[in-house]
Amino acid sequence: MSVSVKINRDSSLVLTRFSGRVTDDDVRQQMSLIAAGAPYDGKFCAITDFTHVERFDVTTEMIRMVAAQASPLAAAKRVIVAPGEPQFGVSRMFQALSHVTRPDITVVRSMAEACSILNLSPDSLR
Predict the structure, then answer these.
(1) What are the extents of the domains in the chain?
(2) Peptide bond into 39 cis (omega under 30)
(3) What is the reported pTM?
(4) How far apart are CA 3 and CA 76, in angstroms?
(5) What is d(CA 26, CA 105) in angstroms, rounded to the nearest whole number?
(6) What are the φ/ψ torsions at residue 107 (nearest 5 degrees)?
(7) What is the CATH superfamily name and number for domain 3-125?
(8) What is the mean pLDDT of residues 59-83?
């Protein structure tokens, strides 16, 4: 499995971590896991971590479809951690396509930056 979703209601955080080779099926699984944890209140934030992604095999059609869909985390402040160039490029494309459905996305290069933006302690990621 190359995707895990951790929902921490105490810290109002949804943390998704992808690793290895990421496919359309992994993205579908992430969406399903996040939807299963709904409802989320307006205090929630979300981090999507691409630190350990080696390869993206996600189609442009999938990226566009997800970007156009409403999200159960619509009100959440979101940060995507994308340290490498391929991860960063895909993340910025998603950010641009999602400006209506997910208006509060920031793309950063490290988990430390993500925690700083969201005012989270690194301990809350465990």
Answers:
(1) 3-125
(2) yes
(3) 0.95
(4) 20
(5) 20
(6) -105, 125
(7) STAS domain (3.30.750.24)
(8) 95
What whole-number distance in Å separates Cα of residue 79 and Cα of residue 33? Answer: 18
Segment 6-15 mean pLDDT:
94
* Separation between Cα atoms, residue 45 and residue 78, nearest integer Å: 6
What is the overall mean pLDDT for the chain? 94
- Measured CA to CA, the distance from residue 76 to residue 71 in angstroms comes to 9
Residue with tokens 């996600």: 58
Structure tokens at 46: 């979300």
In angstroms, rounded to a whole number, what is the distance separating the alpha carbons of residues 97 and 36?
Answer: 24
Q: Which two tokens stand for residue 99?
A: 């400006």
Confidence of residue 124 (pLDDT cuts 50, 70, 90): confident
